[in-house]
Amino acid sequence: MRSSILASATAERAGSAWRQLNRAGQATAELLATLRGDRAALAGALFLLLALAATLFAPPILADEARRIDLAMRNAQPFDPNLPWRYLLGADSLGRSILFRLLVATRNTLLIAGTATLGAAIAGTLLGIVAGYRDGAISTFLLRLADAIMSFPSMLLAVLVLFVFEPGILNVVAVLAVSRLPIFLRTVRAEVLEIRQRLFVVSAQAMGAGRTRIVLKHILPMVMPTVVTLTALEMAFVMLLESGLSFLGIGIQPPEITWGLMVAGGRNYIGSAWWVAFWPGLAIFLVAAALNLVANWLRTALDPAERWRLGSSLEVS
Q1: Using alpha carbons only, what angle is made at residue 128 by residues 127 and 133, rounded to the nearest 5 degrees?
Q2: pLDDT, tens digit (0-9, with 9 covering 90-100), for 211-253
Q3: CA 133 distance to own-chain centroid
Q4: Peptide bond into 304 cis (omega under 30)
């Protein structure tokens, strides 16, 4: 008798898990269908996939070639049919292939921006939920901390911190994450203040549900669409910040390569070899534009009140 009850309970749990997996698959399929219907967002997503492919495969294959110096090819012009294909986008002042350096630098640029943004999103979301769900001294302290950080422009704060501490990947990621944390904290707090007044949260409290269960089951799923959209937008901004720091010489240091460093290396040759700074600058612009296009699509696709604009009946569980 007991074994049959256990078997029945196990089968019921397996069936429930399968149904949830099936609903998640259907939601993902419909989400991708809405993406195909938005040509601008689709183009942005495809470009980001290409950048991700370069992040994964270019450094192991092309790292040595990207650092190879050939002074005979110094400031070689792009699209010259007489040159090897590795100089398709030209060469820099040391004769290094801009194409290979551009591909290899994708990893550092996107990895730093992505790590800093993800760290800010996780910490800011957790602190924002605490500040929004709990009143009193804790909420006040978190808000004052966010105000103190936001009182400094992000670039100025990063410059001050990196001027005191040694420039490096970890320090750059940390200062960029801290500089964007208040954006997530204040945005999530505002959402939580509104969500906790809704009927389903009040009903859960009346039925005796604990704070942890209410946050994990009712509040967190409601704020995640906003966090996902904000993360995509902030990653574009953080990438521009990192490029600016590298351009100023206080971000990532050689022999590491980032797009910002490549722009900085070509600033003295704008008049004679414009392509040295142009191609990495164009890459920064295209990735930032692609992230903004995808973020705009996510904002509409994940918001039930706006989803009709995509012509979809998508249900996000």
Answers
A1: 100
A2: 778 778 878 888 888 888 888 888 888 888 888 887 777 777 7
A3: 26
A4: no
Q: Is residue 287 within 8 Å of 48, Cβ to Cβ?
A: yes
Expressed in angstroms, the distance from the first to the final Cα of the chain is 36
Separation in Å, CA 15 to CA 1, 55, 117, 195, 217 = 21, 39, 37, 31, 20
Residue 227 φ/ψ, nearest 5 degrees: -65, -40
Q: How many CB atoms lie within 10 A of CB 253?
A: 15
Residue with structure tokens 């993360």?
A: 231
DSSP letter for each residue of 53-83: HHHHHHHHHHHHHHH---GGGTTPPTT-TTS
Residue 21 CA from chain centroid, whole number? 26
Q: What are the start-end ranges of the H helices in 249-274?
A: 259-266
Beta bridge partners of 91: 97
| Residue of 281, 268, 131 lying closest to 196 (CA atoms) | 131
Q: What is the pLDDT of residues 4-29, one digit of tens each?
A: 555 555 555 555 555 556 565 665 66
The tens digit of pLDDT for each residue in 46-88 reads: 999 999 999 999 888 888 888 888 888 888 899 988 888 889 9
pLDDT recorded at residue 62: 87
Contacts of 147 (CB under 8 A, 6+ apart): 182
Q: Which segments of 186-287 are extended strands (E)? A: none
